[in-house]
From TrEMBL:
Keywords: Signal. It comes from the Eukaryota. Residues 37-108 form the Prolamin-like domain. The lineage of its organism: Eukaryota, Viridiplantae, Streptophyta, Embryophyta, Tracheophyta. The keyword Signal applies. Residues 1-25 form the signal peptide. It comes from Brassica campestris (Field mustard). This is Prolamin-like domain-containing protein.
Length: 117
């Protein structure tokens, strides 16, 4: 649980820092679209909800599933891969990427079930 809290705090700090200090937003080897397009497409509450399921034992809420699907798979994949590439997590990266895909499939299913026919 402590590792999950560190991940969540790190994510929030990265988002806030990139918003307040543009020079911190993108390092040379990071895709610029990560910050410019993806981070702003999902609420911090839902981002943390999704992160808690991918990197811990949380469960994504229905409203956050809908937000995730609206964000798009490319952004979801990019953000989770970015977090999973952290040195403290890279050893279990394949596990996290599998959970990322499971969360995506679940959220697409939930969103389709809620969509008007």
């Amino acid at each position: 649980m402590a590792k999950l809290n560190i991940i969540m705090v790190s994510f929030v700090v990265l988002v806030v820092a990139s918003t307040c200090i543009p020079s911190l937003a993108v390092q040379e080897n990071e895709p610029k679209k990560l910050w410019d397009q993806c981070v702003v497409k999902i609420s911090p509450k839902c981002a943390l909800n999704i992160i808690s399921q991918v990197f811990g034992n949380g469960v994504v809420s229905t409203p956050c599933c809908q937000e995730l699907v609206q964000e798009g798979k490319e952004c979801h994949d990019t953000l989770i891969k970015y977090i999973a590439d952290r040195p403290s997590l890279v050893g279990k990266e394949s596990k996290y990427l599998q959970k990322r895909d499971e969360v995506w499939a679940h959220c697409v299913s939930v969103s389709k079930a809620l969509s008007p026919a």
